[in-house]
Design a protein that fits this description.
The chain is of the alpha+beta class. The protein has seven helices and 14 strands. It is elongated and about 60 Å long. The N terminus is likely disordered.
Length: 317
């Protein structure tokens, strides 16, 4: 929480530091809270149950700033500065109107209607999956604040995140899992039937694809290399991943839309089925630099996000 972080960064009198820590302990997170008791909004907007979860993306981890070691009520905390996994079971609390609009430890204003949370040691920013085992509900939140510091509590949720989990009535046992960069890149953080957004696409070399994913493609839409043996489709080279979906239909719709756009920066657009995902990719390009140039051109022209991956295998047909 920002008041705690400021105590660590800008020394105050002992009484002032203790007061800031006590406020943090009792009230939750975000600095300079408004006077009075915390609580829910008197007239919450309609449809908060349908607010989308936070969409994880790989964000650089800072050494220092909100990730500096700090102390609250004699307890020292050392936030992670590396991409480490973390799983915890404990109590979840939430914070609302008293802190709405106030700076969090990240410097971002707290939005009780967003999908964020506070944690004592996860790097800021981080993403976490939180599950309420009592009802099976799960949410994904972005960690941008410090806290909670009450005994047994492991996470402090935004009002909307708490609403979606069904924990507004009080502190509730939850399971918390930090999503690592590998979780985000691979799409493992997604549940069954959920599509993977372009902002969290796999960037490591892809596994060998199955022929099923290529059956839907016209033969003239598949790249072939001079060195490819007869009856094989050349897969080696660098590709731009433009989308990944749990259903073939969704992938084919994106493939068709890209064809219709006629983007000159793209070569052949293919759909590969891999590990239960239908991946829409354009390529191959001979070098990573050429693929990146095409990705940059597409971003400038249409705002379309694409990530470069490398394929080394040949797929026999």
């Amino acid at each position: 929480m920002m008041s705690t972080m400021r105590t660590a960064t800008h020394p105050r009198s002992a009484a002032g530091a203790l007061l800031a820590a006590v406020l943090a302990l009792l009230a939750g997170c975000a600095s300079r809270p408004r006077a009075g008791r915390d609580g829910p909004p008197s007239r919450p907007p309609a449809g908060l149950e349908q607010v989308p979860d936070a969409v994880p993306r790989v964000e650089p981890l800072r050494v220092g700033g909100p990730n500096k070691p700090y102390e609250v009520l004699g307890q020292r905390y050392t936030p992670f500065t590396a991409d480490l996994p973390l799983q915890e079971n404990g109590l979840a609390s939430w914070y609302g109107t008293k802190f709405h609009g106030q700076p969090t430890s990240s410097g971002e204003p707290y939005d009780m209607y967003g999908m964020t949370a506070a944690h004592k040691t996860m790097p800021i920013p981080s993403y976490a999956r939180v599950r309420n085992p009592a009802n099976g509900r799960e949410v994904v939140v972005r960690i941008n604040d410090r806290g909670p510091f009450a005994a047994g509590r492991v996470i402090d949720l935004s009002y909307t995140a708490a609403l979606k989990l069904g924990v507004l009535r009080g502190v509730t046992p939850v399971q918390v899992q930090r999503l690592t960069f590998d979780d985000i890149r691979s799409g493992r953080w997604r549940g069954p039937g959920e599509d993977l957004p372009a902002s969290a696409l796999l960037t490591t070399p892809a596994p060998r694809p199955s022929a099923v994913g290529l059956d839907a493609l016209p033969a003239d839409d598949l790249a072939s290399g001079d060195a490819a043996p007869a009856g094989a489709v050349a897969m080696a080279g660098f590709w731009l991943q433009l989308g990944a979906f749990r259903t073939r239909d969704a992938a084919l719709r994106l493939q068709q839309r890209l064809r219709d756009e006629g983007d000159a920066s793209l070569t052949a657009v293919a759909v590969f089925e891999e590990d239960g995902w239908f991946r829409v990719q354009a390529g191959p390009y001979a070098t990573r630099a050429q693929a990146q140039q095409a990705a940059d051109a597409g971003l400038r022209a249409s705002g379309r996000s694409a990530l470069v991956i490398e394929r080394r295998a040949l797929l026999d047909r």
